[in-house]
Design brief:
This protein has two helices and no strands.
């Protein structure tokens, strides 16, 4: 049987390896990771967390000119 289309091979362990490199070598990495809570007790607590996360992203990210 002949297959005429080319299929891309997905390699999940490569992605996992990149994740581990970023986690264990943060100085060399161009990414950073944050831990996010899934559940909050009040809506105000959720809003405060969102604003704190946005502030962290604003402080950590840089724009190349």
């Amino acid at each position: 049987m002949k297959v005429n289309r080319i299929s891309k091979v997905y390699r999940p362990m490569r992605e996992f390896g990149k994740l581990l490199k970023d986690l264990f070598n943060p100085k060399k990495s161009t990414h950073f990771w944050i831990r996010v809570t899934k559940e909050f007790h009040t809506r105000e607590e959720r809003e405060e967390f969102i604003y704190a996360t946005l502030e962290l992203l604003d402080n950590e990210t840089k724009v190349k000119a």
